[in-house]
Design a protein that fits this description.
Layout (H helix, E strand, L loop, with lengths): L1 H19 L5 H13 L5 E3 L2 H11 L2 E2 L11 H13 L4 H10 L4 E5 L2 E2 L6 E2 L11 E6 L2 E6 L5
């Protein structure tokens, strides 16, 4: 009985661990000044839920996720797209197409797990290094990529 209780407790701790870590880092908060100085109000960023809340609440920029979910059309589709077709995209073109679908000018890629809507995920940012689709604009604990608007 103790054996099973140990593994149930371990599973519960593993499930809760991402929620115990910072959901927004100090470096992300520090990036807000760069965002204010280098982007326009209402610019759209591809973000997870918490990055979107941080940006919208402090900069008047928009995130693909977060904010008033009651007025966002097709919110479940949006969460699915951002999680599976952007942060977990198999290739850079799929990520770029998803960013463009939502009118994003920038992508918010923090050095932490992201929560786009269905699960906590660690982001492999290497796919965003393809300068045909994205350009690294800022990096100090969070990478902010400019989404190229025209791709040849």
């Amino acid at each position: 009985m103790i054996y099973f209780a140990f593994f149930d407790a371990q599973k519960a701790m593993d499930t809760a661990r991402p929620w115990m870590n910072p959901i927004v880092t100090q470096e992300e908060y520090s990036a807000i000044e760069w965002v204010k100085k280098n982007t326009q109000e209402r610019d759209v960023f591809v973000t997870d839920i918490f990055g979107g809340e941080l940006l919208m609440g402090n900069t008047l920029r928009e995130g693909t996720e977060g904010g008033d979910w009651a007025i966002i059309p097709k919110v479940v589709e949006r969460m699915s797209d951002v999680q599976y077709k952007f942060y977990e995209a198999k290739d850079v073109k799929e990520a770029w197409e998803t960013a463009r679908k939502y009118g994003a000018k920038y992508a918010w890629v923090p050095d932490r797990q992201v929560f786009p809507g269905f699960a906590w995920k660690q982001v492999d940012s290497s796919k965003f290094e393809d300068e045909q689709y994205f350009r690294l604009a800022y990096y100090e604990g969070v990478k902010i990529y400019e989404v190229k608007q025209n791709v040849e």
